[in-house]
Inverse folding.
């Protein structure tokens, strides 16, 4: 089963979570399919969180078999596409860019304080550099900031 689907597993209990289960129709369809299985005691879905909780009888369906059946129902990811995506280099690495921006902010802030002793123009230049690095940092985190 794809790692991204299974959140927790205990004998008799299996929780699935995936962004596609936030679609109410998809969540309800999966619940209806799972409810029809022999040995499934209850199925509860929550489209708001994109999760489905399955309670089943582990004496009738061993946990390994239950996970295999759920995986077959959900469909396995296309291995060829996953390999192809892994081979492609990342077009944009936000973590590396953000790390460089953080280091730049720290350096330019230090430079700004030291430049006070030299002159206003150097102080202003370091301040502008700091604002540029800050802009990169905020652009990297814009989605979290705009929630």
């Amino acid at each position: 089963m794809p790692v991204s689907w299974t959140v927790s597993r205990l004998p008799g209990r299996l929780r699935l979570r995936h962004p596609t289960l936030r679609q109410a129709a998809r969540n309800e369809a999966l619940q209806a399919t799972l409810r029809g299985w022999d040995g499934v005691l209850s199925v509860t879905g929550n489209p708001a969180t994109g999760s489905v909780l399955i309670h089943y009888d582990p004496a009738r369906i061993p946990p390994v078999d239950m996970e295999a059946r759920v995986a077959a129902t959900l469909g396995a990811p296309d291995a060829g596409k996953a390999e192809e995506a892994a081979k492609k280099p990342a077009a944009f690495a936000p973590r590396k860019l953000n790390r460089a921006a953080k280091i730049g902010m720290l350096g330019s802030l230090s430079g700004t304080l030291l430049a006070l002793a030299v002159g206003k123009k150097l102080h202003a230049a370091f301040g502008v550099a700091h604002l540029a690095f800050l802009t990169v940092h905020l652009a990297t985190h814009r989605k979290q900031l705009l929630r």
Notes: Confidence is low (pLDDT under 50) at residues 78-83. Residues 94-145 form one domain. The two ends are 32 Å apart (CA to CA).
